[in-house]
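Lecture 7 notes. Example A: sequence first, then its structure tokens.
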Amino acid sequence: MKVVVIGAGFGGLATASLLAHEGHQVTIVEKNNYLGGRAKVIKQDGFTFDMGPSWYMMPDLFERYFAWFDQKPSDYYKIIRLKPSYEVVDQNDQIKIYDRQTTKNVFQKLENGAGEKLDKYLNEGRSKYDFAKKYYLFNNYSKITKISFSSFPALVKYNPLSSYDRKVNSYFKNETIRKTLKFMTVFLGGSPKSISSLYSLLGYADIDLGIWYPIGGFGQVVAGFEKLAKENGVKIVKNQPVRHITTKDGRVTGIVTQAGKLIEADIIVSNADYQHTEQNLLNKTDRMYSRDYWQKLQTSPSSILYFIGLNKKVKGMLHHTLFFDSDWDEHFASIDKKSIITNPLFYVSAPSVSDESIAPKGMENIFVLVPVPSGVRPTKKEKQLIFANIIRRMEKKYNTNLNNSITFYREEDSKYFEEEFNSYRGSSFGASHTTRQSSLLRPRLKSKKIKGLYYVGQYTNPGTGVPLVISSAELINDYIKEDYGSAN
């Protein structure tokens, strides 16, 4: 069958390869002149900056995906485990996170008994992770009966209605430990108080499975997925924004590009922003969700991104660093209140610490992410004040002048996400993983209105983040096999 995939993010690339492998005739139509979606790469003045994902997590899910093709990720790109994974700079303490045993020792120094508590916390996280893989990550949700009733006792035991915040606090008293384990909720699109405790499985993914880095940057992972797609016969069309999805008698018939070109299709999979697809590419009668639904949907934070090239190396800097040396509660409250603060929490990635190929010799490549509310565009003055605050805190941490060493600078905010990816409210990570927006309550993978229309990516199941988006592609493949059978 003829399949059109709208968008060449990881979800689109992963879906296209699977469907082509099943024997379908697949074309990806991408609005931009590059592939990878948010995993865009800047190459300038000898620096290579990842503009999107920078944490390679859950390597087992990548291994599972490539196994569909009798391949391994290492056939397409190389990853290394970071040791330590990252550093946390808090108001009172500075700690480095390693594997389980070393991190137990680190935690034990901060709180008596915390090493043993971490064992219990991570064991519970592993149990949740295995549970999620068995019952939810690869369940196509086509019918409620597809969810195994044998999963309910475990689900009740994990108490998904309780918050991530409460779960971590039930184990640990030290604030630095608590913040270290809670910060991952930012990438799930919310605060620790709004995200379900079920996602505390991320502690296991972080510490036991590890944080990895693809040599050359995430662009190499994109290149690997592109190569896999082409090996399976996928046709890729760039620089072609889609203007409209055409339908007839309740089924898809194709897409029309901005240039007016019609591409016929029996099946369409949208990896474009879900809200954009529904509200802008479909006729009103073909939409599943109303404008009111989208207005009420809780989206993840947006981000201010700073890309900095330094003409020197920074002693003591690690690949990843989380700066919590400001008011934790104020930052999360500002996201809920839709306000910008100039003394935020922030994340720093300096991949040139691990990979000399991405910066000129003797120089440093730094990427800074500041979570800010979605739907709010920071002013030029606010971005300047935030950057000055970040530099001051980094200079204090590393005891060196950074301002005078900046040779490359670029900043982006919600406008970038809106214009580059048609991102609803300029959100960085799609729909939040709140209790009311998890599992069956997330936007659907398959249209109820139009036969042959599917959605893949961070808005739908299983959720946000590259590993889960790739899992989403597997779910779409299952749906289409269920609905149409294999083309082989």
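Example B, a different protein, same format:
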Amino acid sequence: MVRKIKGYILLFLTASMLSGCAYTDWPIQIKTTSFETSEIKQKDNIIISKGKVKVHDSYGVLLAVEVSEDTPGKLNIVYSKDKNKLEIFQDWRKFLLLKEDAVSDEDSGDITIELSKGLNEFVISGSDCTCEYAVSLSIPAKDRLVSYDGAYIMPHE
């Protein structure tokens, strides 16, 4: 009888240790970059991408442009943002660090860029920051423009 009780106690203790006392219904809170608004249009040889983005733990593509051959261009970004660091990359080459303080209607001025044949993505990266933006890309050789898009998420790899 004592042996049987010890067996039940051992079984109960083993089952208790294996099941644990974990609470499994905690909500998973993953912050990811999201575009609240976006509008992309072309006017002659200028592509304009406007919107509002909340930047968190993934990359956001503000503008993507495909060209048929290497071509120069001029990019300008006017932005308003919260306090925190944001960076703009062109195909993973950082070319613009936005001001870290909260700003309104900050103008980058014209930035001369080189678009490579194929897809060129202008990516925003940072942490916990909301940014309203207007990106203008001027391409002198309009006939080299194949397509354009923007306001989409590029997850970490």
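Note on Example B: The first strand starts at residue 34 and ends at 43. Helices lie at 2-19.
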